[in-house]
Amino acid sequence: MKEVKRRQELLKRLGAFPLSKLRPHEKQLQFLDSSARVRLFFGGNRSGKTYIGIAEALAHAYGVRPWCSPPRWLDVPVPNTGIIVSGQGWGRGVGGTIIQTVTSFIPRSAFKQRAGPAGAPVKLILDNESVIHLAAGSQDLAAFEGMAFHWAAIDEPIPRGVFDGIWRGLVSTKGRIWFTLTPLGANAQWMHELFIAENKLGAEVITASITDNPYLDAKAVEQFKALELRPGEAAARFRGVFEFLSDRVHPQFDPQGPAVIDPQVLPGGVRILSVDPHASKPWVLLYVHLSDDGVWTVYDEWPPGPRWERALDGQEASIEAYVRIMRALEHVPVQIRIMDPLAGGQAQYAGRTLQQDILKRTGVYFSLQTQCNTMLGISRINALLADGKLRIFRTCTNTIRSLASVAFDPRQPRGHVVAGINKDHWDALRYALMADVRPPAQLCYAYTDADFT
Predict the structure, then answer these.
(1) Which of 65, 247, 423, 448 is the most exposed, fewest CB within 10 Å of its CB?
(2) Cβ atoms of 205 and 49 closer than 8 Å
(3) Which of 123-132, 185-194, 297-306 is predicted with the least confidence, judged by mean pLDDT?
(4) Percent with pLDDT over 70 in the chain
(5) Cβ atoms < 10 Å from Cβ of 129
(6) Which CATH number fits domain 2-246: 3.40.50.2300, 3.40.50.300, 3.30.300.110, 3.40.430.10?
(7) Do the two domains 2-246 and 266-452 of this chain adopt the same fold?
């Protein structure tokens, strides 16, 4: 009897909220009717994707879809803990879109709000004591570790590492997760790979066009279609079609194509180590071979594996530690060591630059004679791919994923680059290919440690 009374009181309270007046259109109903643990609503702009994603989040927080007739009770404990993550950042995403949509469904009196960075809320405590954590996909990955959720809602593409942390938080509760997004940008690439190409998680995908929203008048649709967009971007924004390839920096690179080869002996040539150093995450070490006929081959990388950003968890991260790693990897000596010139030229200890500090402490010399210009690097990689002169050992999985996922940010001027998997391996590749390295027939000298100590 207590449960019956509780439900009656809840429905009476929710009956005064706009949430109870929701009238989903056909594609939104398909999304709601799905029994899949992982659901994705790929929608064009104004297709109602964020609207239905937040409505479903509130329904899970209350344990019922009050707009159904009769109300549909959900298999989730109440009160519960959930998370909503925006791929649009704190200000525009969390503080703007998410909160505005929440308050379009329930009044501010129905929840308490705890503020986070720059005033953006980080937690909503509903009047039934359910807790909704709010987060941005741009946050440090550590923010998504060690928490348990009963459900999760993702609005717009997020980095793969964010999903991994949230997914682990759903394991103990067997909670559901859903995504509502326009499939654009680098962060959409891993989603295509995981949920469509492989789909080992049994995800269900619903695709909606801007014209599927009957509550949007024809004039608004035509005005939106009048916008000048690139063909691939237009397909995603109008029809919700997965067009991440249109944003890719290297659309001709196929991880299953001829540029990815089995490991093999690389005779002669010049061997280069290219390093992208960082203060807050592991350095990336990329080993590249340049043959006599000008073919570049990526033959080794560090850190290896999908969790490369955590390669040094609990371990020393000193310059000496990195040099020991290099020595262990260099079974065949390298002739040239290249480092990101911006990082290598920064002041470190006792007024020395990072480059000078490495030399002073370990005797290892890194050249800074490479080009940092992003667009020149892109042109260089594309030209080598077109000529069949860039190859990658298939064991270098992080480099392959990085090259496949690096993309232009559609919200920024051309030349601004983001990445869905990681960008650091791609940066290290650029530094190697843009360095002043000549094939052996033209090489006048090779760099060795002894030359600079």
Answers:
(1) 448
(2) no
(3) 185-194
(4) 79
(5) 10
(6) 3.40.50.300
(7) no
| Buried residues in 320-332 as b, exposed as e (16+ CB within 10 A) | eebeebbeeeeee
Q: Which amino acid is at 1?
A: M
The sign one gets for the Cα dihedral 79, 81, 85, 89 is positive
Q: How far is CA 122 from CA 50, 82, 91, 130, 370, in A?
A: 18, 12, 12, 14, 42
Residues 183, 241 contacting (CB under 8 angstroms): yes
For residue 354 the two structure tokens come to 């990072």
Model pTM? 0.61
H-helix or E-strand spanning residue 361:
helix 354-362
Query: How far, CA to CA in Å, does 370 sit from each of 245, 340, 381?
Result: 29, 8, 14
CATH 3.30.420.240 fits 266-452, yes or no: yes
Beta strand pairing call for 284-290 and 38-43: unpaired
Report d(CA 86, CA 95) in Å as an integer.
10
CA-nearest of 378, 406, 43 to 189 is 406
Q: What are phi and psi of 114, to 5 degrees?
A: -110, 125
